[in-house]
Automatic annotation (TrEMBL):
Gene Ontology molecular function: hydrolase activity
PANTHER family with a match to the protein in the record: PHOSPHOGLYCERATE MUTASE FAMILY PROTEIN (PTHR47821:SF2)
Organism: Halomonas rhizosphaerae
Enzyme class: hydrolase
Entry EC no(s): 3.1.3.-
Cross-referenced InterPro entries: His_Pase_superF_clade-1, His_PPase_superfam
Leader sequence residues: none
Keywords associated with the record: Hydrolase
Name by which UniProt lists this protein: Histidine phosphatase family protein
Gene3D superfamilies listed in its UniProt record: Phosphoglycerate mutase-like
Pfam families, A to Z: His_Phos_1
Length: 195
């Protein structure tokens, strides 16, 4: 499996806004919640996350999206729903935007992310403890962008996902080694990054 992806050509058919979900109950409790079993029905936005979105929407400084795609986890669905309601838009789940699966670390304290990221830096194809490989996350995320580029043009598209997948996507689109995805500044909850 390749360790790098081609850099973006510089010409996009669409404009992309990448958004990390608002502060969630998983963030609040310091837990790794990465499986559909736990993430679809539970661990939605915290009160802090809802406040973050209220502030973001009142100060929205980006193009208004024509389309909103989101991970089907509760925290990302609630984030997308609040934005869609604000702008009077529909929103659609896409499982390629899901959280990175952290395998046997599911439900553990979020301090355990550090050991996975240390392994990522040595080998982005590793699946230690059943963790989804960085290269696999990059493949599904870049596949989504490629599909959108093929089927849409001239749109502003908001993609609501999770911290790790978005950082991996950005690293892949920059053409950098996927092992370097944690060298980027972490994406804050409810932050928006323009491609």
């Amino acid at each position: 499996m390749s360790n790098t992806f081609p850099a973006a050509s510089g010409h996009w058919h669409n404009r992309y806004l990448l958004m990390r979900h608002g502060h969630s109950l998983a963030n609040q409790q310091g837990l790794i919640i990465s499986t559909p079993e736990h993430g679809l029905a539970g661990f939605g936005l915290s009160s802090r996350g809802r406040e973050q979105l209220d502030g973001l929407l009142s100060d929205w400084c980006w193009a208004i999206p024509a389309r909103i795609l989101h991970s089907d986890f509760r925290r990302t669905t609630e984030t997308a729903a609040r934005i869609a309601q604000h702008f009077g838009l529909r929103f659609e789940a896409d499982t390629r935007l899901r959280e990175r699966h952290f395998g046997a670390l599911e439900g553990e304290g979020d301090y355990r992310y550090a050991e996975v990221w240390a392994r990522d830096a040595r080998d982005p194809a590793h699946r230690h403890a059943g963790v989804e490989a960085v290269a696999e996350v990059a493949a599904r995320m870049t596949e989504l962008i490629a599909d959108l580029e093929q089927h849409h043009a001239g749109e502003t598209i908001l993609l609501v996902s999770h911290g790790d997948p978005l950082q991996i996507l950005l690293t892949a689109l920059e053409g950098r080694e996927l092992s370097q995805h944690r060298e980027r500044d972490p994406l804050a909850p409810a932050s928006v990054t323009v491609l």
